[in-house]
Automatic annotation (TrEMBL), chain B:
SMART domains hit by this protein: AAA
Domain of life: Bacteria
InterPro entries noted in UniProt: AAA+_ATPase (IPR003593), ABC_transporter-like_ATP-bd (IPR003439), ABC_transporter-like_CS (IPR017871), FeS-cluster_ATPase_SufC (IPR010230), P-loop_NTPase (IPR027417)
Designated name of the protein: Fe-S cluster assembly ATPase SufC
Species for this entry: Secundilactobacillus silagei JCM 19001
Single GO MF annotation: ATP hydrolysis activity
Length: 438, 264
């Protein structure tokens, strides 16, 4: 960790040298330096009832740019003409945008090219409006040490039928934190879905800082899904936030199925009147891992609707804390915010919690919450086993039943299936581990 | 030929404050494949307990006696193993599981009793499924719905019988499979069970009413009262009961049994 002031000066010099050598525009180099300065004063973000202070999230304060072995992306599903962006470590492996979309002005490119080529958009929106770089130490770290990421711009009125698939693969064959940024600007009336896949290759101990910022302009309609599968030696901070303007619709469908400790912070800020967000999160924890997840919706504009639905499954000795935070700001009359947070304990050695946190400063609203920490439904287990299905498969089916209400609302069938496959693979691993230890 | 024997079975359940209550008080029953047995009896007399205990529901504790399948005790076996050995319980209240389709569940159940390297092919499965759906007058759409989720009472019962037809157990315990069914559904369900009749299939049908037994004619009828089988006979016994009620039989046998389950 960095501590003394002289360390910061040395870091700034090193960051500037690396960023200049990387050919970054001056405005961005300056922002990096401002962020290093800010880090000195800022505290870590607060997650209620969850302690992550000793995690090695900011050990790496070198800004390095290196080429990754692109063959690490070889096992991705074969592209069948999808709109696709693939990045391994800091190296962009593939970008496929149909010509007709490019002609309409759709931009899908790596974040550093975007800083150079589209400063009018990136300078305006990168960590300035959706998330500010100086919110806390981790956001400042993000801006200071950013080393990978992707930029998407969908112009006014453009409707993209095919989902946009982005694969971000952490290269842990070397010692290097992943500090990645997804910046999405959905211009007025645009419509599209975005699918992000996070993976790790290699088993070097590294942190991953994966930030997503979405600027949803008026009347846009965006669906964001993410299947997070970071590796067993990756401590991660997943910071995802959307800013919704008037009548924008923005939905999250996030499956957090990482193998190591994860701090998740997912937020929808409903600024514009009549905007609407559905925030769905699934998490599965196994082994001794610990996940702390804040899922936050902030109703600011009038007549805004924001619903949270989270379900988590805990196996072995893992820990999972779900905080559902519904924040209704004074003046957000006619706001509607419902939340449901449920965790299912598959082991009596696991520790799970589902905390609804309602912060309401307005009278004319509808808000509600449901939360539960439960055991596996014995009646369902009995029913399945009475048909000859063995205990492990029965458990996986019951878990799927538990996750069903969130899974079934994922609109893209391929994402839903991928999520189910990833979750069941992880649960199966957890079950086998348990058996071999019995 | 397979046999299922229940010998001097005593079963109790836990109630609040560590109290236990004995429900079955020495049940004896022997059945073979090729036979259909019916168990009748007033409410609260232990009929469902018998079925649940044979299947292995952990809420019921056997304190005495034994259950033998083909001569071997199954008391130490978990539920799934009993099922794979050939037992099936058509439940009064089937569980609902969102996220798992009926078809997927059926395949998993069929494959559970087949070796890993000989799982049923998709074609063979669908062929069998189509045949049975037609027999039960069920739409294909039912199999793509989540398991029992949002099914009406009648749909659930049909779905239990669909599972029976797909899984093809040696012995089916059918617990009030007629409750909540209108006459058309009752006929369909009966048709399904009757189609299973043969040398390799036996069934124990639990019912309050004789009506079901007009459609599925039993070889043996047992009457259960207060945790014991008090009388066995042929199909005519059910008709007699329908006419005279359980009280008549009780008095005839000189039993001191309270028949109103509210007062138990």
């Amino acid at each position: 960790m960095i501590s003394a002031v002289q360390d910061y000066e040395a870091i700034k010099t090193a960051v500037k040298t690396a960023a200049d050598a990387h050919g970054e525009p001056d405005w961005f180099v300056q922002r990096r330096l401002d962020a290093v300065d800010a880090m000195q004063e800022l505290a870590l973000p607060e997650v209620k009832r969850y302690d992550f202070h000793r995690w090695p999230l900011m050990d790496n304060t070198d800004l390095n740019f290196r080429k990754s072995d692109t063959s690490l992306a070889n096992d991705l599903p074969r592209s069948k003409g999808q709109i696709r962006f693939v990045q391994v470590g800091q190296t962009t492996v593939a970008v496929n945008v149909p010509t007709e979309l490019s002609k309409q002005g759709v931009i899908l490119t790596d974040i550093f090219s975007a800083f150079r080529d589209y400063p009018e958009l990136t300078q305006k929106y990168f960590m300035t409006k959706v998330t500010k770089f100086n919110e806390n130490k981790l956001t400042a770290y993000q801006q200071a040490f950013l080393n990978s990421g992707v930029f998407l711009y969908v112009p006014k009125g453009v409707e993209i039928k095919q989902p946009i698939e982005v694969y971000l693969i952490q290269d842990s064959t070397v010692k290097q934190a992943m500090v990645s940024h997804v910046l999405i600007i959905a211009d007025e009336g645009s419509q599209f879905s975005f699918i992000q896949h996070l993976n790790t290759k290699g088993d070097v101990d590294n942190a991953a800082h994966c930030m997503v910022e979405v600027m949803s302009q008026p009347d846009s309609h965006v669906h964001f899904s993410s299947v997070d599968e970071l590796g067993k030696n990756t401590y991660s901070f997943l910071h995802r936030r959307a800013h919704l303007s008037e009548n924008a619709r923005f939905d999250w469908a996030v499956g957090i199925v990482n193998e190591q400790n994860t701090l998740g912070d997912i937020t929808s800020e409903l600024v514009g009147e009549g905007s609407h967000s559905e925030s769905k999160v699934i998490a599965v924890t196994t082994g001794k891992q610990s996940n702390g997840i804040n899922n936050r919706v902030v109703n600011i504009g009038k007549h805004t609707t924001a619903n949270i639905s989270q379900r988590g499954v805990l196996l072995e000795k893992s820990e999972l804390i779900f905080n559902g935070i519904g924040n209704i700001i004074h003046g957000a009359s006619g706001a509607n915010a419902e939340q449901e947070n449920r965790v299912l304990m598959m082991s009596d050695q696991a520790h799970g919690d589902a905390n609804p946190i309602l912060l309401i400063d307005e009278n004319d609203v509808i808000a509600g919450h449901a939360a539960s920490v439960g055991q596996v439904d014995e009646n369902q287990m009995y029913y399945l086993m009475s048909r000859g299905i063995d205990k492990e498969l029965a458990q996986r089916l019951v878990i799927r039943g538990f996750l069903g209400p969130v899974l079934e609302e994922i609109p893209l069938p391929e994402v839903r299936q991928e999520m189910i496959d990833v979750i069941e693979r992880k649960i199966e691993d957890g079950q086998h581990f348990k058996q071999s230890n019995e | 030929m397979a046999t299922l024997e229940v010998k001097d079975l005593h079963v109790e359940v836990k109630e609040e404050k560590d109290q236990t209550r004995e429900i079955l008080k020495g049940v004896n029953l022997t059945m073979k494949t090729g036979e259909i047995h019916a168990i009748m009896g007033p409410n609260g007399t232990g009929k469902s307990t018998l079925a649940q205990t044979i299947m292995g529901n952990s809420a019921y504790h056997v304190t005495q006696g034994d259950i033998l399948l083909n001569g071997d005790s199954i008391l130490g076996m978990p539920v799934d193993e009993r099922a794979r050995k050939g037992l099936f319980l058509g439940m009064q209240y089937p569980a609902e599981i969102k996220g798992v389709t009926n078809a997927e569940f059926l395949r998993a159940a069929i494959n559970a009793r087949r070796p890993e390297d000989d799982q049923i092919s998709v074609m063979a499965f669908l062929k069998e499924l189509d045949k049975n759906l037609e027999l039960l007058d069920m739409s294909k759409e039912m199999t793509e719905r989540y398991l029992n989720e949002g099914f009406s009472g009648g749909e659930k019962k049909r779905n239990e019988i669909l599972q029976l037809l797909m899984i093809k157990p040696s012995f089916a315990l059918l617990d009030e499979i007629d409750s909540g069914l209108d006459i058309d559904a009752l006929q369909v369900v009966s048709k399904g069970v009757n189609s299973m009749r043969g040398d390799d299939f036996g069934s124990l049908i639990i019912t309050h009413y004789q009506r079901l037994l007009n459609y599925i004619v039993p070889d043996v009828v047992h009457v259960m009262m207060d945790g014991q089988i008090v009388k066995s006979g042929d199909a005519d016994l059910a008709k007699k009961l329908e006419k005279e009620g359980y009280a008549g039989l009780r008095d005839e046998l000189g039993l001191h049994v309270n028949l109103v389950d509210d007062n138990r």
